[in-house]
Prior knowledge:
By secondary structure, the protein is mainly beta. It has one helix spanning 100-111; strands at residues 15-18, 24-29, 33-34, 39-43, 46-49, 63-65, 69-70, 76-81, 85-88, 115-118. It has a single domain, classed as Head decoration protein D (Virus Head Decoration Protein, Chain: A).
Amino acid sequence: MSNVQVQLPRAGQYIKSEVGSISRDTIVFTGAVFQPGEPFGVVAGEAVKLNFAADTGAELAKGITYAYVDATDADVKGVYTSRLTEVNMQELIWPAGATDLQKAGAVAELAKSHVVVRG
Length: 119
């Protein structure tokens, strides 16, 4: 029997600085588990897993999940970083296989909302 424990990312650990509560909003997350620090896309007004191969809005990083959200069985309202925030690149959780070019595109998309990625 193993006693290995894994610590998940803490809520907001990716944030370097923010402008109080104006930096966060809520959104409905759908279809998956989202980790703190995970950029996501938006389709039909709901947060979805970032998918660089999509052509639906899921390919555009529109926010960063603030805290753990499990929306696998049902849609769940959660908090996300939406604007006026400086974040650590090393703390962001990207889709498996994401290239540096794809990450750079997502960073540029986040910058449109004044979410600045450092590092």
